[in-house]
């Protein structure tokens, strides 16, 4: 299908796309997968140096798989949600053992990798292998909600109707579909933003249902997650102690990292259960071996 939105978006993207390493000509599927895992809940500005350093250390899945998972957790640093590091390490191991070290180009096979859901599988298949798949991240969902549905924001969970809409807007030719997918994503990141949409420079403003309706405000607006004082912050503090240590650390070192004993114990138990920390028989703690 060719929609009236296609050419304006592709033209705008050709002129305004950011120079990102995972979009560069010749970028490997591994580079794309690493970027997609890192970009889950983390802004591009923080991912750029982390992605560069990750690929410099582990240029292939086999190189990643040859190191212990603790090395991935340490390298992950302060990107947040460190279980993504373990999933990426496990995905590298599976790719190395089952796929000859090559990220699979099949959407269904991508879905079998740890940390890869419907969006990530579609993104890797589309951006790395130029295939035709609907790609729905937060930015794309917001653009399509405003452009087609006339809503300021989409619902909290991705609906079947959103997937159907994204599919109907996909061009038939796979290469063009892949450029459309990344173009709409970039439009949401740079122009059709959540807080201050720049409708005056939007290439599809003339066809935007939300803009024609006078930009009605949503009844329920997205709310940012609180971080200060949460278990998540506590977990980050404990992990930071282990990342910065050359080896195992005693429990007393972790006690000093967070003042609330009950919360600290809960966070520590969660980190051990998640495989992010090893509890050693001698009472010390370390990153997973």
3D architecture notes:
This protein has 289 residues and is mainly alpha-helical. It has three domains: 1-16 and 131-224, Endonuclease Iii, domain 2; 17-129, Orthogonal Bundle (Endonuclease III, domain 1); 231-286, Orthogonal Bundle (Arc Repressor Mutant, subunit A), CATH 1.10.10. It has helices at 6-16, 29-38, 44-57, 61-65, 69-76, 83-98, 107-111, 118-129, 138-149, 160-169, 174-190, 209-212, 231-244, 251-255, 261-273; strands at 249-250, 278-279, 284-286. α2 crosses α3, α5 packs across α6 and α13 (231-244) crosses α15. The model has no long low-confidence stretch (mean pLDDT 95).
**Could you say what the CATH topology of the largest domain is called?**
Endonuclease III, domain 1
Please count the helical segments.
15
Distance between the termini: 51 Å
Unreliable spans: none
The percentage helix is 40-55%
Large-scale geometry = globular
- CATH superfamily of the largest domain, by name, is Hypothetical protein, domain 2
Q: So what's the CATH class of the largest domain?
A: Mainly Alpha
Average per-residue pLDDT, rounded, comes to: 95
Summing up helix and strand content along with how strands pair, one would put the structural category as: mainly alpha
**Biggest β-sheet: count, sense, barrel?**
3 strands, antiparallel
The CATH architecture of the largest domain is: Orthogonal Bundle
Beta-strand level of the residues, as a percent range? Answer: under 5%
Q: Give the helices and strands as they follow along the chain.
A: HHHHHHHHHHHHHEHHEE
Q: What's the number of domains?
A: 3
Number of strands: 3
Biggest sheet, spatial arrangement of strands: 1-3-2
Task: Specify Rg, calculated over alpha carbons.
Answer: 21 Å
């Amino acid at each position: 299908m060719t929609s009236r939105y296609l050419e304006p978006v592709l033209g705008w993207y050709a002129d305004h796309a950011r120079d990102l390493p995972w979009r560069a000509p010749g970028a490997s599927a591994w580079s794309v997968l690493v970027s997609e895992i890192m970009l889950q809940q983390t802004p591009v500005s923080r991912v750029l140096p982390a992605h560069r350093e990750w690929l410099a250390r582990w240029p292939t899945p086999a190189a990643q798989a040859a190191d212990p998972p603790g090395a991935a957790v340490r390298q992950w640093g302060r990107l947040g949600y460190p279980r993504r590091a373990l999933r990426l390490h496990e995905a590298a191991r599976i790719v190395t053992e089952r796929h000859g070290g090559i990220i699979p180009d099949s959407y269904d096979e991508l879905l079998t990798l740890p940390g890869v859901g419907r969006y990530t599988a579609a993104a890797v298949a589309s951006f790395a292998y130029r295939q035709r798949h609907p790609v729905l991240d937060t930015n794309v969902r917001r653009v399509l909600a405003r452009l087609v549905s006339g809503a300021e924001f989409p619902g909290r969970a991705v609906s079947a109707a959103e997937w159907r809409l994204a599919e109907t807007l996909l061009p038939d030719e796979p290469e063009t579909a892949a450029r459309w997918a990344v173009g709409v994503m970039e439009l949401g990141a740079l122009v059709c933003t959540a807080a201050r949409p720049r409708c005056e420079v939007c290439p599809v403003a003339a066809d935007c249902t939300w803009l024609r309706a006078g930009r009605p405000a949503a009844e329920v607006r997205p709310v940012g997650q609180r971080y200060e004082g949460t278990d998540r912050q506590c977990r980050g503090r404990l992990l930071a102690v282990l990342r910065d240590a050359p080896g195992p650390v005693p429990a007393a070192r972790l006690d000093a990292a967070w003042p609330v004993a009950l919360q600290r114990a809960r966070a520590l138990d969660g980190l051990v259960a998640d495989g992010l920390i090893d509890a050693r028989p001698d009472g010390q703690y370390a990153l997973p071996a």
